[in-house]
Amino acid sequence: MSTFDRDEQNIHEALSQITVDAAGLAGQVKSRLNKKTSYSTPRWQSRWSLAAAMIITMSALLVITAAAATLGSFDWLIKKVNPSFGEIVELVEVYCEDQEIRMEVIGAQKYDNMAIVYLSLQDISGQKRLTKQTDFRDGFSVKMNPRTQKTDGQSTVEASSFGWGQKLLYFDEVTNTVYYEFNITTDSNSPLSDPLELSSFLIYFDERKYEYEPVSLSLSNLGEAETTPIQREYIFGGTNVPDDLSELTAILTPGHYAPMPHGEDDQWISNIGILDGKLHVQIGNAFNKEFGSSDASLFLMTLDGKLIECDYKLDFLSDEDHHLLNLEENSYDDAVYKYSEAVFTVNTEELGDYTLCFTGLVHSGVEGHWKVTTNLSDTSQQMRIWTTDISVEGHLFEHLTLSPLGLQVIGTYEGEECMASEMSLAVETVDGIISLGGGGGSYNSQKQSFNLHWNTETPLDVATVTAVIINGTRIPVE
C-alpha cells in the first residue's frame, strides 16, 4: 500500500466520501449556465489548508465533467457561444480521430449548394498542440456531386469549385478544443453531397511570424565567397530576375554558414560573401514540406533603421547530397533542398554599418485523414428558386436561389471583365431591407458567365422575402 503523508491522507478520505448525482446535477448546471455570478474581493482572507483547497478543486472538476456529459457538445456550444445560425442547424455530434486529433461536427444544416457547420478540433493527446491560430488551410474539403453536361452526345463533368468562410467561435484552453463556424458554398452545378461529407488531410497548429527579424551575423570583414558554376538550366525561379542571365555564371557554394533566428532545422544561412563586387546571401530550405519554415525575404537595415531590398533573388534545387540540379536533365522528384540567393548592391567596404534581417513564417501542424459524414433533413421547402432575365449594368442575372443562408446567382456578362461580385445586394422583406455580404464564387471567361453567392449574417426567413435588390435594381421574388 502506498504511504500517504497527513495532508494526502485527509484528501483521500474526503474524496472517498464525495458522491455525484449526475442526473440531478444536470438540471442545476443548465440553469446556472444562464445566471451571472458577481464576485467581490473581501478585505481579508483566511488561508485555506492544502487539503481543503484540493477537495474544492476536485469537486469543481467533477461538476464540469458531469456538465459536459449531460449537456453534450451541441447544447454546450449553444449555451456558451450562442452562434449566429444555431437556431437552424441540426444536432449531429459525429466525430473522427487521427493523429490524436478529434474532429467533430457538432451541428449542421445544408441547402442544396450552401451549408452552415459547427465544428470542433480537440487535441486528445494531452500535448495541447492546438492554439487560436489552428487552421485547416488548403487541407479542408467538402464532397460535391458535379452535374454532367451532354455535348454532341457525350457526357462531360463540369468543372466545379467551393469556398467557405471560417470563424473562430471559442478556444477552450483547458480541454485544448477549438470551435468554429463554417459557412460553405459550392457552385450551382455541383450541389453538396447527400449525406454531407467534410474532410481534411492537414491541420495547422500554430504560426509564428517574423518581420524584419535581425540575423545574429556580422557582415564586417566578409571576403570573396566560394562559388559553384551554374547555367541557366539550374535556375528554378526567383524574384526580379534579370532579363539577361548570360553574365550569371556562378553562385555561392551551398553550405551551412549559420542558423536562422527561429532555430528551426529546416532553414539556415547556407553561405554569404562578396561576388562581383556585390553582397550575396544564400538561404537553404528543406524542399516541398507542408509544415516548417516558409521562404524567407532578406533585407539589409541601416543604422538609422532604413530597409534595403535585394536587387534580385534566384532559386535553385539540389539533391540530398546538396548537388545543384540541372532542371533539363533532372526530375523535380530528385529535389530535397531549395537554395535562394539574394543579391544586394551596396558599398562592400561599409558592410559593418548594415544588419541582415529577414521576414518569414514558421508553421507547425500534422498530416492525417479526417472525414465526417452526416445525414441531414430535406430543406428544399425552405428555399425559393426562380429564373429571370434582369440586366444590371451589362450583367444578366438569370437564375436565383434564395435560402436561409443567402443568395446564389447564375448569369452572364458583356465585355472583358465581370463586375457582378462588386455589386451591392440586399433582400426586401415584409419587415424591411436586409443587406447581404460576400460576392464570392467563380467565373467562366470563355462562356462569359458567373456563379456567385452572397451571405446573410443571421438566418433569413425566406417566406418573408418579396424582392432582391441588386445595385438598386429591384427583382421581385416569384
From TrEMBL:
It comes from the Bacteria. The keyword Transmembrane helix applies. The keyword Transmembrane applies. The chain crosses the membrane at residues 48-71. Keywords: Membrane, Transmembrane, Transmembrane helix. This is DUF4179 domain-containing protein.
